[in-house]
Fold this sequence. Notes:
- With about 240 residues, this protein is an alpha/beta fold.
- It has helices spanning about 25-30, 35-55, 75-100, 115-130, 145-160, 170-175, 225-235; strands spanning about 15-20, 60-70, 105, 135-140, 190, 210.
- The protein has a single domain (about 15-145, about 185-235), classed as Undecaprenyl pyrophosphate synthetase (3-Layer(aba) Sandwich), CATH 3.40.1180.10.
- It contains 7 helices and 6 strands, in the order E-H-H-E-H-E-H-E-H-H-E-E-H.
- Strand 3, helix 4 (about 115-130) and strand 4 form a beta-alpha-beta unit.
- One 3-methylbut-3-enyl trihydrogen diphosphate (IPE) binds near residues 21, 22, 66, 197 and 199.
Amino acid sequence: MSNAALAPIDMNKLPKHIAVIMDGNGRWAKKNKVKIALGHRAGTENLREIIRSSSDLGIEALSIFAFSTENWSRPKVEVDALMQLILEFFSSEIDELCEKKVRITMLGDITQLPERQLLALREAEDRTRENGGLRLNIAINYGARAEMVRMVKQIAEKVQAGEISLDSITEDTLSSHLYTAGLPQIDLLIRTSGELRLSNFLLYQCAYAEFVFPPMLWPDYSLKDYHESICEFQKRKRRFGSREE
Ligand code: IPE
Ligand code: IPE
Ligand code: MG
């Protein structure tokens, strides 16, 4: 696609941190009368382009919801297909991501994943740790409630050990014990497929996010649509509770 066809993004008003809930692969598979695994596979094609474009635009952080703590309850064939895709995605993308200086961080408890996936994800984090480009967060076995339980336990342990006092706990203390520690809060959250909910994604970090809900199913959500979502964000008036002059 030529860049001329893309919506004109204001480079001075870029969202710092974008979160994406890639939803609609199942319905896309049904609509196209193919197996569910093919729906998920189709959903990795545009993901590549969106990551590339985010890096080229100079977006600071992109957080992608790939597999939730609740998705384990899906049929085994589907979970297996998703696990296989995770492996394929990292082995095919890692070189280019490294070249683009993308730094990969996993959000979620990846220790619960099968050994091969766990090793591949750890390797992706290790190989890209020193990179100073786009911060690419991939949420796998992620749930915001589980993330908050983990955060509370970590802080409570520090209080118990006398490392910090109760009085010294601030919002920054909480933020710094989330998987997204050190990153800006979410400016823009995109969820495709017309579902209007968060489904346990980044609850704390989305406190002041702008929400965009494109109606198309994830595999049909193109780079052009992504740029339109960013433009829509740029039209929003963000007040953060104060009075506009
Ligand atoms: C989102 O697509 C991808 C994952 C949850 C991994 P879905 O598989 O949820 O698609 P629908 O909602 O069934 O259409
Ligand atoms: C959220 O989508 C999880 C991912 C996109 C990975 P779901 O399709 O699992 O969410 P619900 O079940 O519609 O809330
Ligand atoms: Mg869904």
